[in-house]
Predict the structure.
Amino acid sequence: MTYESMLAETVAFTGHKGDIGEAYYARPLGAGPWPGVVLIHHMPGWDEWIKEATRKLAYHGFATISPHLYFREGPGSPDDVGARVRAAGGVADAQVMGDVQGSMAFLRAQPYANGKAGVIGFCSGGRHAYLAACSLPDVDAVVDCWGGNVIVDDRKQINEKRPVAPIDLTEKMNCPLLGLFGNDDENPNRDQVDRTEAILKKLGKRYEFHRYDGAGHAFFNAARVAYRPEQALDGWNKVFDFFHKHLAVQAVARAA
Amino acid sequence: MCSYIVEKAKLVGSAKGANGWMRIDTANVYYDHPFHAQLDHALGIDFVNESEGGRERVAVELSADSARQLVEKILAALASGEAEHGKARRQMEPV
């Protein structure tokens, strides 16, 4: 018999500017060493599906932390807190990057960590993940799941909280990128995904993009009508393969 | 879609939520993925009192078609209601 176990719990982490926030953290039990993943929640908030996805990554061998990016708004149900954040124009990119960096530090500080840290984000979190790939040091691999506004065609969307279109930072990307997209999505739409890929290719970045027919935005989310089980199953497997490939400690390094 | 585009309407009125009646001064209106309605996109309206911090809300999520029908019904109810109440007021006025 193979013994399986995992621990999932709320933890405190140190985020942007030293703010102490809450995060959902799930990890396999045992000595490890386990690679780490920061999971960036979607715009609706730090909800049940996000926690389910965090446990899913832990089940596949990744110590995974999902910081509550809206914790500064105080307590409340995820939808109410998310509504307050929306009414305030969202969270600032710099603050999110600080929280992601703090979450990576949390992962690497654990005694069972293998030292590697990946980032995955969904929806607005996909855009944040792309930003992390271009602006944070020491990110080992990034997965962008249908992040909208990586390319900003409507310049009115550029503002104090989101001062830069992530695509304009692509030259600084210094880790491999996996992108998953539904061909029926409107943000990002097919044309925007094609243009993003063209820039990644032109700049010689390490990336793989997968596009799914019959799927739109958020097709992993089993709680939504957008859920597409066949495409989601394939997409999750691509995520696991990608992270296992890029977050494993090489045999040579381990021996050293 | 997951945008941050919100139309804000200033209001005078009240709404009844989880904690009973409250005064409201703002409606935050947006079209995006809903939290509860089983729709790909929905018109969301959050009625809040921003002057008191906007922490409590009364929320609805509507399909695009039903939101448009609601707009028409609001205008129709206002037109007929104001006409009736105007008539009542006129009848009450001294000759």
